[in-house]
Automatic annotation (TrEMBL):
<keyword id="KW-0812">Transmembrane</keyword>
<feature type="domain" description="FHA">
    <location>
        <begin position="126"/>
        <end position="175"/>
    </location>
</feature>
<dbReference type="InterPro" id="IPR000253">
    <property type="entry name" value="FHA_dom"/>
</dbReference>
<keyword id="KW-1133">Transmembrane helix</keyword>
<feature type="domain" description="FHA">
    <location>
        <begin position="21"/>
        <end position="70"/>
    </location>
</feature>
<feature type="region of interest" description="Disordered">
    <location>
        <begin position="206"/>
        <end position="244"/>
    </location>
</feature>
<feature type="transmembrane region" description="Helical">
    <location>
        <begin position="251"/>
        <end position="272"/>
    </location>
</feature>
<keyword id="KW-0472">Membrane</keyword>
<dbReference type="InterPro" id="IPR008984">
    <property type="entry name" value="SMAD_FHA_dom_sf"/>
</dbReference>
<dbReference type="InterPro" id="IPR050923">
    <property type="entry name" value="Cell_Proc_Reg/RNA_Proc"/>
</dbReference>
<dbReference type="Pfam" id="PF00498">
    <property type="entry name" value="FHA"/>
</dbReference>
<protein>
    <recommendedName>
        <fullName>FHA domain-containing protein</fullName>
    </recommendedName>
</protein>
Length: 273
């Protein structure tokens, strides 16, 4: 999940919970930006395994990440995105000052991207349903007046079904009660949410380059002594072992000389005898 915040606060922050999150000025986008510099279908964020890639969709004014124009680029927390003249920062929600630990991020088409903080208050719990007395109320036809109760336990976020007909589903399994972890999927009737809280795995910035240090040699690794090179006026760059080889007597020359001498002796003996 990513949390997007407009630098000029023209719109409320929005969460990216969809695998294909479109951005543009047309009404059918996941994030609609009403600005003349933003194309109808401007860009798209694609997420997979906590990795998000921003792709420009051939917009007129272009898309940039941290001041550099891009066609496609991986993005994450602290990156600044620009669509035309509109700047948006990917914030790190874990570093924000807030009066709650847990929240539900809507990922259904009704409320997609909206955040619902779970502020426990004096009662120590948050009740969700369609009743007006609930802490968080949704007008769902099949949602019970009091559908689910959320409390914080040492193990995590605890949810209990309040004797409903349509139940509570955690990661697509119906439960009477469960302990939720950050990133879990919770569904109440047609309302689907992702759980945000302590321990959430947020993607790191793709523009941050980790420092690379030279590897430390192990004690059991052999020490390699480099070849020693010598420089000679007539043959620069020869290795020292090659110099030793040049000092050896040329065997082929000696053999050839001996053969020629023998032939001369034989020829002389034939002529004068």
């Amino acid at each position: 999940m990513l949390k997007l915040r407009f630098n000029d606060n023209r719109q409320d922050p929005v969460w990216v919970v969809e695998k294909n999150f479109t951005i543009g000025s047309a009404d059918d986008n996941s994030l609609v930006i009403n600005d003349a510099s933003v194309s109808p279908q401007h860009a798209k964020l694609t997420g997979a395994r906590q990795t998000f890639v921003l792709k420009d969709l051939g917009s007129a004014e272009g898309t940039s990440v941290n001041g550099s124009a891009i066609n496609q680029h991986a993005v994450a927390c602290h990156d600044v995105l620009k669509f035309g003249d509109v700047e948006i920062t990917i914030v790190d929600p874990a570093s924000e000052a807030q009066d709650y630990e847990w929240s539900l991020i809507a990922n259904s088409r009704f409320l997609s991207g909206q955040e619902f903080p779970l502020r426990m208050g004096e009662s120590g719990s948050v009740v969700i349903g369609r009743g007006k007395r609930c802490d968080i109320a949704f007008p769902g036809t099949h949602l019970s007046k009091e559908h689910a109760r959320f409390t914080i336990s040492p193990e995590g976020l605890h949810v209990v079904d309040l004797d409903t007909d349509n139940g509570i589903f955690v990661n697509d399994e119906r439960v009477e009660e469960a302990v939720l972890r950050a990133g879990d999927k919770v569904r109440l009737d047609v309302y689907s949410f992702r759980v945000f809280g302590p321990g959430i795995d947020l993607p790191r910035s793709a523009t941050a380059k980790p420092a690379v240090s030279a590897p430390t040699p192990r004690d059991d690794e052999p020490t390699v002594i480099p070849k020693q090179w010598v420089t000679r006026p007539t043959s620069p760059g020869n290795r020292s072992e090659m110099e030793e080889e040049t000092r050896k007597p040329p065997v082929l020359i000696y053999a050839f000389s001996a053969l020629m001498i023998a032939l001369l002796i034989g020829l002389s003996a034939y002529v004068f005898l």
